[in-house]
From TrEMBL:
Residues 151-246 form the DUF7309 domain. InterPro entries: DUF6930, DUF7309. It holds the Pfam family DUF6930. It comes from Chroococcidiopsis thermalis (strain PCC 7203). This is Uncharacterized protein. It comes from the Bacteria. Residues 10-133 form the DUF6930 domain.
Amino acid sequence: MTTSLNSSTRRRLQKLNQIPCVWEGDRRTLSAPSPRGDAEAGSECILWVDGSQGVVRAMDVVATDSGPEVVVRTLLRAMEHPNSPAKPARPQKIVVRDREIQFYLRGVLQELDIAIDYVPDLPLIDELYRGFEEFGEAHPPELPPQYATALKKKAFEIWQAAPWELLEEHQIIAVKLNHFDIETLYISVMGMLGMEYGILLYRSAESLQRFRAKVLIEEDATEQLEEAFLKQDCLFLTFERSEEMDGGGEFVDLADLPLSEIEPSFGNIHPLEGLRSVLYEEEASAVFVALEALNRFLRNERRQLGGKTFPEISRNYRITLPSSQSEKKSQPLSVTVSTLPNLATELEEMADAVATEAIEAEDLDDMPLFQSLRDDLIPEDSFLSLGVVSWEMVQQLRQKVTHQQVGKPTEAGDGLPVILIQTSRPKAKEAIEALLSAGGLRGIGFNPGADPFGGDRYDLGVLQTNNGELFLFGEFLEDDPVHVVARKKWNDRCKHTKGYCGLIVARGLMGASRGQPQMKDMMALFEARSLSSKDLGIGMLQLMPQIE
């Protein structure tokens, strides 16, 4: 351990003006956040204070296991580079309340003509630390203590219920409270796109409508979106990946992670308060009741909510607030949970109107008269297969997922022949939206293709949308025995259905269901016509070299 300053440092300090004052110095364990806000568990704060002038000359936060040299380091800064308005100087006297620090400083500061004494109390530093503790106590916890455990438990119940698998953001659920100065909370569920997961609880339908209208109009304007975000009037629950498991900025769909890696967060947004990651007692009470009511509603009405339409449903519940053992159990609160299909339709029409205006604003004259075979619909890393689904499963899919049907297939044979596209949830959502925006799927066919340079011949899988566009979904070697068998089965099954087939878009590419998606993984079923190469009308396609 170094116990003396080097000669150049000592000479530099001796040149400082020595002032007739007494400085207090100490290091103490932090029991509350320091004013600098960088204290953590296992930290200590070092303070050097000029008792004569009543100013803090230097302060530092160090690890508890740091040696005594950190005290000297902070003292030298107090002498040479003090906090404003103090000026560089040497004190005549230093007082400390720790004998070990006293003896250590005497050894290090010899030849600087500074007296170093021990005192049992440091009144100025004691007063500062009391202020630190009061400052820390003035910061409320993120959740009221009596609600912290209960709310986090409710949050994980919501996560496991996965309402985003049933509800889109515009499909609003109303929870009528008539308590906590809140008449009704309007719940919007985030997560169907697989990007952000959470529950927004708006205090008024007007706030929800204003925000969604602003988002639609200012979709690409970041500053305006931030402003609109802060003008919401809502409580919120969001889910994020826990910091310990942070993937370093790489996008991960939270739905693919185990529960242990999910972290819920609560907060409040108000036009006059902005964003606040703290819930006070009345807010926590309202959120608890709303989440419990939503959870019961999802459990009771999951089948209806998972249907093709957003039905009108209303249910009443009695919910008891959590209470500590010392408190008397509170009386149950009566709440009503209802779907709002009319509001959902209004919000959906609002989005459609904005989209229509955007399309009409495009310069249609620049569109080519002939559109070639496109390959930007199906994600490159998708799992692709030709198969069949039973008619029983077809009936379930028609009720539970995004569904579009062209004509009515004959329910014969072992089921509906389908092309299965399995990818990640966000990419599946994009593909579904692209198909719907193109008017839906008209048909599925196969068209011959050739590589004039390599000599290979291909069977190209093609999707045709109702607006006439053609999309490539797969390239199969014409003489591949596996594909030959699959194509024969495809043709036979299409004959049984009188020329009908389907496209299933599923999620779960990286999960355990890769290649064998379950019902919960399937996001859309498009029933369409089986098209021949003549129906497609594009003739033999040839692979062209890419010239750069």
